[in-house]
Structures are given as C-alpha cells and as structure tokens.
Amino acid sequence: MKIELIKGDITKMEVDVIVNAANSSLLGGGGVDGAIHRAGGKAILEACQAIRNKQGKCKTGEAVITTAGDLPAEKVIHTVGPVYNGGKREEKEKELLANCYTNCLKLAEENNLISIAFPNISTGIYRFPKAMATEIAINAVKQHKSKIIETVVFVCFDDENHECYKSLLNG
Ligand code: AR6
Predict the structure, then answer these.
(1) Most buried of the four, 18, 70, 109, 141, by CB within 10 Å?
(2) Which pTM does this prediction carry?
(3) Residue 62 maps to which CATH number?
(4) If you measure from the C-alpha of residue 75 to the centroid of ligand 1, how many angstroms do you get, rounded to a whole number?
(5) Ligand 1 atom having least distance to the Cα of 126
(6) Which domain, by its residues, includes 74?
(7) Which of 128, 153, 157, 163 maximizes ligand 1 atoms within 8 Å of its Cβ, making it the mutation to test the pocket?
(8) How open is the CA angle 24-60-108, to the nearest 5 degrees?
(9) Which residue in 73, 75, 51 sits closest to 62, CA to CA?
(10) Does ligand 1 come within 6 angstroms of the Cβ of 84?
(11) C-alpha–C-alpha distance, residues 124 and 2, integer Å
(12) pLDDT for 130-168, tens place per residue?
C-alpha cells in the first residue's frame, strides 16, 4: 500500500472511497461530516437512513458504506470516532480510534475499492490530541497488510494535522 499525504478538502478527492468522520446517528453533523453531506447531496443521507432503519445506530469504531452521491469518489465509508476524554479512558479511546481505520480498510477491501482517502478522524469536534491521533492512524494503516488496497491518502484540512503527518511520515 502506498501512503500519500495531502492538505485540502476530502470532498474533492478523486479516489474510489472517501471516509467520513460521522457520529453514531449517521444522519449528518458539522465538520467534515457536514461538508460531505452538503457536497454529496441527498443520496448519501437517504442511504444512511436506510442503514439506520436496518441496523440502528453505528457503534464507535465501526463503519458502514454508502453511495458518494454527487462526489467524485465512488463510495463513502462512514465511521464513528471516539470522543476524547483522556485520563483512565485514554487507552480505550486510542483503541477505538485505531479500530476506525482498520474497519474502514476492511470494508473497502470487501467492496474491492483500491484507493481510499481518510480525514483526521476525531481531531475536530471530538477533540482527540492531533499528534496522538496521527500516530494511531499511521500505525493502524501500516499494520494493515492489504492485497486489494493500493493507495491510502491522508487528507489534512488544518495546518496542525498536516505538520503532524508530515513529520511522522517523513521521520
Ligand atoms: N475535508 C477534510 N477534512 C476536514 C474537512 C474537509 N472538508 N472539514 C473538516 N475537516 P470533525 P470529529 C477536518 O469535527 O472530530 C461531526 O459533527 C478537521 O480539520 O469533522 O471526528 C460529526 O457528525 C478535523 O481535523 O470530526 C460528529 O458529531 C477532522 O476533519 C463529530 O463532528 C475531523 O473533525 C465528529 O467529530
């Protein structure tokens, strides 16, 4: 798997699948979730509603797949990152964040998708420390040996995340 780093807007990415940092309702929100639903149109929300009707909410660390509607990508994988509280909960929160990346990669493979773009899950509204989240994301992706996925793109929207990824990927 080739790992790439980009600073920009994930809704513009021409890859097979982009990942959404959703919440357990799957019905949209702010941040990257809001941007994806706005740019992708109502087909994404309708697909999320159909999943809700079938399986209920999406648990933290898990992932579901839908159409990408009007986006250039083919599909969107919606995953639910952990809210960061730290303290005694930190180890569990780190494990759940790693699960997000691993479960998205597995779902991409099951759907024969060979290029995938990730946002920096949980580092916005869910307030995960960015350096910690970067290390978890990169380790989870590197540990996942895939015969199907060829390209993984980390799409950073803000400077701080971009600097964290640059130093870890090049260091
Ligand atoms: N492209 C790429 N990254 C983006 C974009 C974009 N267009 N917009 C924001 N980011 P957040 P979370 C980055 O808050 O912390 C939603 O309301 C942003 O800079 O979107 O997992 C959901 O519904 C940050 O680094 O997601 C949930 O309720 C990263 O995306 C909750 O927020 C993640 O920030 C999830 O919180």
Answers:
(1) 18
(2) 0.98
(3) 3.40.220.10
(4) 18
(5) 15
(6) 2-170
(7) 157
(8) 95
(9) 51
(10) no
(11) 26
(12) 999 999 999 999 999 999 999 999 999 999 999 999 999
